[in-house]
Amino acid sequence: MDQKELKKGLQNILDGNKEWMDLVKNDTTGRFEQLAHGQHPEILWIGCADSRVPANELTGRRPGEVFVHRNIANMCIHADMNMLSVLDYAVTVLQVKHIIVAGHYGCGGVTAALSREQFGIIDNWLCHIKDVYRLHAQELNSIKDEKEKINRLVELNVKEQVLNLCSTSIVQNAWQVRKNLAIHGMVIDITTGELIDLNTTYTSKDGLIKGKSEQILSFR
Ligand code: CO
């Protein structure tokens, strides 16, 4: 990047901030003043890092209303200390009422996981999506259209990540002491902006014990 381009890019970012500051300064509702004293979001959003799927805009929520964790392909990996720390803070301290795992159709991470190419260090992250593929290989292999196959894996991946969250000690311990924690799986249609509910909501660990294979997801 040459100096001119660097200066212009940096100025653009700072100019954008000035616009935001004007909005904060001219706000008459007092919400920003209130936010300076703390946050009480009711939603934890776990979404893809993709620039097209911003949590607040998609849910029509203002600053202070959504606690956010994003990574490539909205994964909830049990050994990911980053995700676990966000989850614990959101569930235990902020006492959020809804956790939304949000995938999106046409996800680049899921598309890459479906290919057999090497992309670099991300391949080790994509392995977790390949695991989801392996779990649902029969269904996915029966889909001939590549785009359709990717989008179905996007949906199945969301459902698996919801189960991953449900099986954490953090969520199960919260369910022991309160009834108002729901975990939802959703998918965004980026062509319309629609947030589609996948009807995979869990509100207690009892919901997990439907079949023998799912019993193992519950600690007690
Ligand atoms: Co994505």
Automatic annotation (TrEMBL):
Known catalysed reaction(s)?
Answer: hydrogencarbonate + H(+) = CO2 + H2O
Q: Which residues does the annotation say bind Zn(2+)?
A: C48, D50, H104, C107
Q: Which GO terms describe its molecular function?
A: carbonate dehydratase activity; zinc ion binding
Keyword entries, A-Z = Lyase, Metal-binding, Zinc
Entry's SUPFAM superfamilies? beta-carbonic anhydrase, cab
A Gene Ontology biological process annotation?
carbon utilization
Essential cofactor(s): Zn(2+)
Q: What is its EC number?
A: 4.2.1.1
A Pfam cross-reference name: Pro_CA
Comment on bound cofactor: Binds 1 zinc ion per subunit.
The family note in this entry says:
Belongs to the beta-class carbonic anhydrase family.
What is the protein's name according to its record? Carbonic anhydrase 2
> Source species, please?
Candidatus Sphingobacterium stercoripullorum
Which lineage? Bacteria, Pseudomonadati, Bacteroidota, Sphingobacteriia, Sphingobacteriales
